[in-house]
Write the structure tokens for this entry.
Amino acid sequence: MTDTQTPPTEPGAALLSAGRFFRPGTPSPDLHSVTMTDGREADAFYRDRWSHDKVVHSTHGVNCTGSCRWKVYVKDGIITWETQETDYPSVGPDRPEYEPRGCPRGAAFSWYTYSPTRVRYPYVRGVLLEMYREARERLKDPVPAWADLQGDPERRRRYQQARGKGGLVRASWDEAVELVAAAQVHTIRTYGPDRVAGFSPIPAMSMVSHAAGARYHSLIGAPMLSFYDWYADLPVASPQVFGDQTDVPESGDWWDAAYLMMWGSNVPVTRTPDAHWMVEARYRGQKVVVVSPDYADNTKFADEWLHPHPGTDGALALAMGHVILREFFVDRETPFFADYVRKFTDLPFLVTLTERDGGYVPAKFLRATDLRQDGEGAEWKTVVLDETTGRAVVPNGSLGFRWTTSGEGRWNLELGDITPALSLYGRDVAAPVEVLLPRFDTEGGAHGQGRGAVLARGVPATRLGGAGGPLVTTVYDLLLAQYGVHRPGMPGDWPDSYEDDRTPATPAWQEALTSVPAAKCVKIAREFARTAERSEGRCMILMGAGTNHWFHSETIYRAFLALLQLTGCQGRNGGGWAHYVGQEKCRPATGWATLAAASDWARPPRQMIGTAYWFLNTDQWRYDRFGADVLASPLGEGRFAGMTGADCLALSARAGWMPSYPTFNRNSLDLGEEFGDPVAKAVAELRTGALRFACEDPDAPENWPRVLTLWRANLLGSSAKGAEVTVRYLTPHNKWSIHSEYQDNLFMLALSRGGQSIWMAPQDADAIGVRDNDWIEAVNRNGVVVARAIVSHRMPAGTVYMHHAQERTVGVPKTETTGMRGGIHNTLTRLILKPSHLIGGYAQLSWAFNYLGPTGNQRDEVTVIRRRSQEVEY
Amino acid sequence: MRPMAQIAMVMNLGKCIGCHTCSVTCKQAWTNRRGMEYVWFNNVETRPGQGCPRQYEDQEKWRGGWELNRRGSLRLKAGGRLHKLAGIFSNPRLPEIKDYYEPWTYDYRNLTDAPLGDDYPVARPVSSITGKPMKIEWSSNWDDNLAGAPAYGDLDPMVERLREQASDKVRFSYEQTFMFYLPRICEHCLNPACVASCPSGAMYKRAEDGIVLVDQDHCRGWRMCVTGCPYKKVYFNHATGKAEKCTLCYPRLEVGLPTVCSETCVGRLRYLGVVLYDADEVTAAASVRDEKDLYQAQLGVFLDPEDAGVRTACERAGIPYDWIEAARRSPVHALISRYRVALPLHPEYRTMPMVWYIPPLSPVVDALSESGHDGEDAANLFGAIDTLRIPLEYLAEMFTAGDTAPVRASLEKLAAMRSHMRALNIGEEPDTSVAAAVGMAPQEIESMYRLLAVAKYEDRYVIPTAAVGDARRLEESALPEGCSLEYDGGPGMGGDGPFGQDSGRRSLPLVSVENFHGLRRRQTSDDPADAEEI
């Protein structure tokens, strides 16, 4: 044991020992430390640094839906730093509080206030301003000046080609505003108000700013473009299943779950302010399962990590559903689950079966009208079989009760004495019939769409009301057929066991598609269901863009939802799905909507589906490689034959399923002036073909839009959509930016790689001789991107990530491929329109702004990566 | 016995989401100025990874911290007094800027001011040190989320150590991926090597709260402190030529506010509280022969505030009453000494660090979970410690000089807590053998759970204010009677108020004033030329 009470004795210690008589203060006996009093004036240095004049409150109006409250410190009128405010209302003594929320991006926000990237004056492209001023001087009037410019293709081309290439000059507010107004007036007069448009997403992040511009556009008759569907954040499954845009629990409800799956949502990065709920809930005994292709920020919190191949999540969810249906419904009825689905889902509803190719196919829901009932809304009332009486009855709560006077008081799920039968199996009146179902998991097809195979599986069916009546089965019986859960006596092609991988949707079948071992799939499914049973419905699936930005995302989401509905979780605290939108709302929604849409002046406002607008007007429709029929079910009726995506879009416009602006191939103001009864005459002319829809010929000059106003948005960068290794190219959320905001922020760049980068697995990097931080280029038929490689073993082989949105304004050199500045993450992707998103005018599948519409999904892309010269030019 | 009090911190690594909010808020508040561009008083490291500066944990290379000489006495690893004097003008063990990273900015102006060309203008990177265009080859957080791990992961000193034990211990392969985040600030050690290293005696440890600081008046820029700190948490300001470091935000602590990094921690993983310790025992504890004994030795230096005798001794030693009471309610004391889930960072440096860590749980390894055994069985629902991905040995090399037992004990307590709480969560009776297996009573486990999961702001930060007598001297509390907008000359009304312009001593170092006004000029002028510093 070291003696610390006597002074040290080694050489040099003598000096120390002697020195104690000359130093102030009291040394310890071992001369290891000395205690002094006074001499603390230097403390003032950091007190001075900390000193400030005041603290004000603010939020950051960026599109993260965080709405965090921040304290902004001010010193001599300058914003110095920010910390989060912590005064959120308490959630009670037994839960963690919301505070402090916030994120590193927000913490860096005040950098923008004084950064050179902040635009404080109007700028106009120099060549445009020059030409405008010349015409204005000559013609003395802004509108003719603009018309003069527009009428000259050579001058037009000059300013259009200058776009993005520097040469901005500062202009006065008066001049800038005059120029914009002249452009809009000229366009409205010449082509029509719907050739002007506005785009500004996510009102909730700054309601006043959004509403001001939206109102202006609405007052001049210019359409506002939708964004929720355009950004592919709209979970189309929600309007499809619930007739509801999106509703999710507040993040605090993650705490209430007993079992949490983060499926396609990298919560620490994309839900930073609230991520702590997920973390803390684990201490309360919540089991966490993360499903992600890479070892992501959230994976470290998981008890188990499942890593299916990107985009194959639907198969995993189906197989989990197979296990749940087998073990918790067919083999053993679970009262908690059965009671729930009888009341809260459409599983008991009767579905008609029609003959096809020697078997049957599911057709429409059985309606009250099919039972020869008439009366208000009978065509929209669904039917169930009552378990007790065996009779077909019409329960409350279907669409037919919603919009009818007689339905008043019956738009609810009160079942009364009815116990809906889940299945017709085992009933005397039912007999097995083979139903044909499409398979989409087969190889082949010119575009990899499969062989168009069909499955035959038996369901119990009965004919209602005698020999001529409709043949029906229940949704539940069809579900068992879809999921491949066999019951004795049902004919057809069924899997033998969980290990049978030939046919959907067994655990072994999904393993071949996803790489997730079958045993793991079974384990998670059982845990999920057992926990739901024991906790009374507190299993939650936290979904994100990782599963929502795919072409077929609504089917992926419906597979998740099925798991939650089968286990009685949807709609309970701590249970159900949790999508990533819905928390941030425009609080005074009704008043705000009136203001923004100028509904106090004119109704309805012009509102357009964003995806279709860009698809047509940027000519992406010309780049489709296959027609819509490639996507059709093998059991379809051939209606897509000969149709492209653009044809489907035009059909949806003509049918009135989706809005369409620019609308007609004529100025709407002219239509209104010319005719006595404009509507009747327009209809007549449409019938004869004298009047056509603009979307039928998008490249005709009279049909395309002319003036677009963008504010609070970044459209052309983040939204407008390579020795070589071919990889799957994905664009997940960035840790160092919130979409395009913050990607140029110096703090964010200092904490990352300081420029555009692409993550790849070591195997792929090695294949092309790329080391970490090497310059690479990603190329496909859509474009080229130059970036530096980030090589990490946490990435799965064959997949690369280019996080969005890394704009090419910072540190991006010219590409070797083209010699020009390359693009951004969306350069390599392209819009693909999904025809089923265009359905309208049918029950809950009816368009409303940001409620329904084609999504701008852009995840499925393949690209080639190659190493390039390490010498770069800017 | 010589009782003293210190405000110490515990960070729960199981809760860190690696967001770096703490780093950004600290930077904006403290080091957002010339000379300090590369300095992050608070940084967050992805592990496995090299940390910042790179490989700072390799003390064979950097010679930071203490070691024992042949006689068993403490000696600075960088050398004894005469050795240091001989090298005072040329310290060979100093990290260079490239060991941190060369800070840079961008030519942002080009985006708005570029003349019309044939291609899109871009802002290219420019070094903040040389002012010249540069290629970015390292940053403050280059290996975030295992970026570049196949190339640099082997350089992580902990990985090197593990590979010495067993070559297959750490593999950078997809199936075996593991990762956690390590936020770091100054440890405000009880036996600070930095203070001992300073030739001019410009570093000091405050007696009332243990905060270690550099006196900006007396610092002569020898930079022996930079070498001396094994955590490399003293930095050199290349504009002023002086050393600076994390101050534990004492202007805030003094008025009862938590540090900026704590309050802004989005993961809610930090705790601040008083720890009472016996100053007379520090040297002995730091000098125990076997480095694996240092953890226990340091625990032995801490005093139990529940012991009435300790409290009396503290009062006699002049520790204010509210500090002693705060020590009883201290979450740091609870996590370190009562529940024993928090561990010191690199005790083998012998500096007696005072920011401790709760090690993180991690997902189960693939191989085991694929067997499909019944996961609902409580024993299997949460992975057994040996099946977790982060190797116990890795955590042990960080927190216990390689002894896996305390790490295992800590993780087992967390797992037991989850298991116990799950039963309550589902509305069932907990199996009491679970708590007993980790030596805790059910109420103890539930209290620990509340502290780790539910703890409110005032439970996480138990900070006594400076003694009332000091209040007048402290700027922050010298508030005027009314709102500063109510009188001419107040802050925000033009002119100087009590906090504006020159609120410290009259004769501040010139550098501070110059920086502030220079910064202000740069922030508001349109023309970069106007913003040039005098």
